[in-house]
Recover the amino acids of this structure.
């Protein structure tokens, strides 16, 4: 469904993303992990059209979409969430979700009906309450719902579990799986390895803007290059030595 081919993004002398190639099969949940500052969110901004790559191309369902604006990509079926959740505080939960639904439903009644259906899917109740009154977990679900209301084929989730406690994470994992089962392909940035191991069939690892590993969650967790990227120089050797000595 998604093919990123040799994509690079430069900001002056800084190379935030360097020659990254990856693919996301239709019907999959694919993970994108890496330490802070690795270039993960920058890659999302390139895929979703908020910025243009300095080099390389992005293809969606075989079509080159490089540089197309996000509103056109939304119509094509690409939606994303954001790390920093910013609901329309003056609107209700239902009205926030309807903002996304208006992309495909021009009438208010249709858009609100779609909002109610999506809210039920992600576990949001009390649709008339102000969005500003939601907890962190509620706002995360609202962000997810607003993106889903655009009826995407490809959903880019940017740390949708960040800031949640273990029980909240446990509760939202089945929601993400149900979204995929309903026919939405997912590419997710995530630091919560419990969720990555549970949800993702395939994982790509970025470090310093470069793709350093790819494979199943179990394969990448055991990859020395990944251990070094997260824990620092020499960490893989120290862990191996400790395991041997233990």
């Amino acid at each position: 469904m998604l093919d990123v081919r040799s994509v690079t993004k430069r900001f002056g002398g800084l190379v935030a993303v360097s020659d990254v190639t990856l693919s996301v099969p239709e019907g999959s949940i694919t993970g994108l992990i890496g330490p802070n500052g690795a270039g993960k969110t920058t890659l999302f901004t390139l895929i979703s059209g908020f910025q243009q790559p300095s080099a390389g191309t992005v293809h969606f369902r075989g079509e080159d979409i490089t540089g197309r604006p996000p509103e056109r990509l939304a119509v094509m079926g690409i939606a994303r969430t954001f790390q920093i959740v910013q609901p329309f505080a003056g609107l209700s939960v239902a009205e926030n979700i309807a903002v996304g639904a208006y992309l495909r439903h021009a009438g208010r009644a249709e858009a609100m009906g779609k909002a109610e259906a999506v809210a039920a899917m992600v576990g949001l109740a009390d649709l008339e309450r102000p969005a500003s009154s939601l907890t962190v977990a509620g706002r995360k679900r609202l962000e997810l719902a607003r993106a889903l209301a655009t009826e995407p084929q490809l959903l880019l989730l940017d740390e949708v579990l960040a800031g949640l406690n273990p029980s909240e994470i446990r509760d939202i994992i089945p929601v993400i799986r149900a979204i995929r089962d309903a026919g939405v392909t997912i590419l997710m940035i995530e630091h919560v390895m419990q969720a990555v191991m549970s949800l993702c069939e395939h994982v790509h690892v970025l470090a310093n803007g470069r793709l350093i590993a790819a494979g199943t969650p179990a394969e990448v967790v055991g990859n020395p290059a990944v251990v070094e990227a997260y824990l620092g120089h020499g960490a893989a050797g120290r862990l191996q030595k400790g395991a041997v000595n233990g």
User: Anything to note?
Assistant: The two ends are 45 Å apart (CA to CA). The beta strands are 2-11, 14-24, 29-33, 55-60, 63-64, 78-80, 154-158, 185-189, 202-207, 210-215. Residues 2-245 form a domain with the Rossmann fold fold (CATH 3.40.50.300).
